[in-house]
Design a protein that fits this description.
- It is built from one helix and 29 strands.
- With 353 residues, the protein is an all-beta fold.
- The protein has one domain: 6 Propeller (Neuraminidase), CATH 2.120.10.30.
Length: 353
């Protein structure tokens, strides 16, 4: 991570690299290899409106749409069936219906309401397009919100706990404040209680010093990874430790300061905006928005990466491992920042790369 006083100099240096996708390794930069002939994606579904997250109800993909607040089931042949519209969603800009997760008969949702971001769960009955949601159960409210920096990713860890990423909601000092839910990774039981073994007694906070974490995933050995939006200089891939301080807003990227945990890998913001992440086959996959590419990071060499589909499908919001082992990639070109292509937004299906 870099001292804030150095941001302007580093921004100039990063700008010299343009959109090449250079990776910072130990103070220098390297340009990661680009696979010239990756597998051609199969379009699983099209016509989505600013989609944000994919979860699975058995083998059926469920997709959240940020602005419409809909949850859609993806059927055979790409049919899209709305199974619910989440009540109370009122976000603007980057706010709205964000991450979803499915576990043990419930659908979990993170969304922006009139009084801040919140996490709710809903009993889930039926299957496929016939699935329906029951009455909402509030797990956690009062998470600071704004038109940007809302975090929003939900994921269950191998310990059975629910993890949620929150943004700093535009006020960086919240990230270092252990009394604030903003700028954190939170950990809770499936019914919304604080686990007894959380690193800070009586607190949902699992790690802090984050600006805007967008992706959460675990390796087979239980290691937890998170992707994070930087400001003007570096985006990050982090190895998450319980109670860890990741430095924002004091530093951005690698600093070599023992007070903070440095990222495993960092990229110029022009080449990244890393969003959803997934782990499979010894590799970590990262969907990138502004960078418009899919990255593969080997877990045995987390300072390296290979890039796929660079500038081919526009902004990529999420990547997940489907029950059949394939990767599902969610485009995000209808959110007001991208350039929609025919059929956008889409779910693309590819074999493991």
């Amino acid at each position: 991570m870099w001292n804030r006083a150095s941001v302007m100099l580093l921004f100039s240096l990063a700008g010299c690299g343009g959109g090449s996708g250079s990776v910072s390794v130990g103070g220098g930069t390297t340009t990661p290899p680009i696979d010239p002939a990756p597998s051609n994606p199969h379009v699983l579904a099209s016509g989505l409106q600013a989609p944000w997250s994919i979860a699975f109800l058995d083998a059926t993909p469920l997709v959240s749409e940020r602005g419409t607040a809909r949850i859609l089931a993806v059927g055979v042949g790409g049919t899209l069936t709305p199974i619910a519209t989440i009540a109370g969603v009122s976000g603007s800009g980057e706010g709205g219906l964000l991450g979803i997760a499915v576990r043990d008969g419930y659908l979990y949702a993170y969304f922006t309401a009139s009084d801040g971001n919140r996490i709710e769960r809903y009993p889930l009955t039926g299957a496929g397009a016939a699935a329906r949601l029951g009455a909402a159960q509030l797990l956690l409210g009062g998470i600071p919100s704004r038109s940007n920096h809302n975090g929003g990713r939900l994921a269950f860890g191998p310990d059975g706990m629910l993890y949620a990423s929150t943004g700093d909601a535009g006020t960086g000092s919240r990230s270092q404040d252990l009394g604030s839910l903003a700028g954190k990774i939170l950990r809770m039981t499936p019914d919304g209680r604080v686990p007894a073994d959380n690193p800070f007694v009586g607190s949902y906070v699992y790690s802090y010093g984050h600006r805007n974490v967008q992706g959460l995933a675990w390796a087979a050995d239980g290691s937890m990874y998170a992707s994070e939006f930087g400001e003007n200089t570096w985006d990050e891939l982090n190895l998450i430790k319980a109670g860890g301080n990741y430095g924002w807003p004091e530093v951005e990227g690698k600093a070599g300061n023992a007070k903070y945990i440095d990222p495993l890998q960092q990229w110029p913001t022009s080449a990244a905006s890393p969003s959803g992440i997934a782990v499979s086959g010894g590799n970590l996959y990262i969907a990138n928005l502004r960078g418009e590419r899919l990255r593969k990071v080997p877990l045995s060499a987390t300072g390296s990466a290979t890039e796929f589909y660079v500038k081919q499908y526009g902004r990529l919001r999420d990547v997940v491992v489907a029950p059949d082992g394939r990767l599902y990639i969610l485009t995000n070109n209808t959110d007001g920042r991208g350039t929609p292509q025919t059929g956008d937004d889409r779910i693309l299906s590819v074999p493991l790369l």
